[in-house]
């Protein structure tokens, strides 16, 4: 594996009291360059979270960090590193998962894991779940539509509707996160 193709992820963000963990696959090149989650200007993650929680768009990364902390969310990626040319999930090779056992110990109040796209869910199932055993008991999971600019099968409004239903639910009802 050549050094330029080895991509390493970022440390988790959010709060220790997080009730929800949102997992991507591996940060894209722009996120790695800036050392900020979802830094590519066309990625809809931050715009979508603002819409889900009916908050103004956060323009600075510090404001984005405050947004996730305010809503008891942690953000991380399934992979610690992998070989990848470019930023597409389809180009990931030789994946190595992050250490989830210590993460779950540190975030004991975690109630749910939401995957930002199918690839994150598939990587988690293959590379993380076997080592976790019963540590996921009581933690709900759900796959959300990807916020990546490469995932354009749904409109932004359709994605907001699905994310909102899963993260916040409707007025007076629980979210629809499922095991």
Description:
By secondary structure, the chain is of the alpha/beta class. It has one domain (3-167): Uracil-DNA Glycosylase, subunit E, CATH 3.40.470.10. Helices cover 32% and strands 20% of the residues. It contains 7 helices and 8 strands, in the order E-E-E-H-H-H-E-E-E-H-E-H-H-E-H. It has a 5-stranded mixed beta sheet with strand order 2-4-3-7-8. The longest helix has 12 residues, at 156-167. The radius of gyration is 15 Å and the shape is globular. The protein starts with 5 loop residues before the first strand and ends in a 12-residue tail after the last helix.
CATH second-level architecture? 3-Layer(aba) Sandwich
Level-1 CATH class name = Alpha Beta
Major sheet details: 5 strands, mixed
CATH topology: Uracil-DNA Glycosylase, subunit E
* Count of folded domains: 1
* Series of H and E elements: EEEHHHEEEHEHHEH
CATH superfamily: Uracil-DNA glycosylase-like domain
The count of β-strands is: 8
Helix content: 25-40%
The strand order across the widest sheet is 2-4-3-7-8
Give the radius of gyration: 15 Å
What key phrases describe this protein's structure?
179 residues; alpha/beta; Uracil-DNA Glycosylase, subunit E; 5-stranded mixed sheet; 3-stranded antiparallel sheet; 7 helices; 20% strand
